[in-house]
Amino acid sequence: MPDGESEDQRQFREYFVARHEAVRRTAYVLCGDWHWADDLTQNAFMRLAVAWRTVRDREALDAFVRTCLVRAYLSDVRRVWRRREQSVADLPEHPRDGDDTASRVAFTAALRRLPARQRAVLVCRFYHDLDVEATAATLGCSAGTVKSQTARGLAKLRDLIGTDGAMTTVGEGR
């Protein structure tokens, strides 16, 4: 343990080191911009650092950070200055064996075109595999809202991607 580091500080440092990249990837899936994802990740971990001593259930840390992350993302989306900003970030270079890059690019582009709330719901439900109630708790909304946002988001993704995986505009030929 480094000099002057308390047990709480050591535990927080270990949690941060273990979970930072996973939280950053989730942030990227939400916002589609690595720089913004870094900001969201920092915001989530800052909130956790402030609340570290009050978190009683250490098994719920991932849920706490995910909730902070999603709420920070939704809060940022509502800000006027964020809407004016246009990202030029490219997809990260992580080639995978047998992975269809064109489909992945089309899906990522379609996901970016969804409204923030629908994107957040889909990320919670399908990227993090949360059930309806856990997603509702993370977003601070009702289970019915999660269900309706999931249905709308999936329908819009289907319209945007199409059956052949090619990106289309919403309503184009459908």
Please give a structural write-up.
The chain is mostly helical. It has helices at residues 7-31, 34-51, 61-78, 80-84, 101-112, 116-127, 132-139, 143-161. The chain is globular, with a radius of gyration of 18 Å. The termini are far apart. 21% of the residues are buried.
Which short descriptors sum up this protein?
mainly alpha, 8 helices, disordered C terminus, 67% helix, globular, 174 residues
Topology record:
Elements: H1 7-31, H2 34-51, H3 61-78, H4 80-84, H5 101-112, H6 116-127, H7 132-139, H8 143-161
Helix pairs in contact: 1-2, 1-3, 1-6, 2-3, 5-8, 6-7, 6-8, 7-8
Count every helix, treating DSSP H or I runs of 4 or more residues as helices.
8
The rough form would be described as globular
Separation of termini? 61 Å
Main sheet characteristics = none
- Topology, number of strands: 0
Order of helices and strands: HHHHHHHH
Estimated structural class:
mainly alpha
Give the C-alpha Rg: 18 Å
Low-confidence stretches: 169-174
Mean pLDDT: 83
Helix content: 55-70%
State which percent range the strand residues make up.
under 5%
Gist of the model:
This protein has 174 residues and is an all-alpha fold. Helix content is 67%, strand content 0%. It is globular and about 55 Å long.
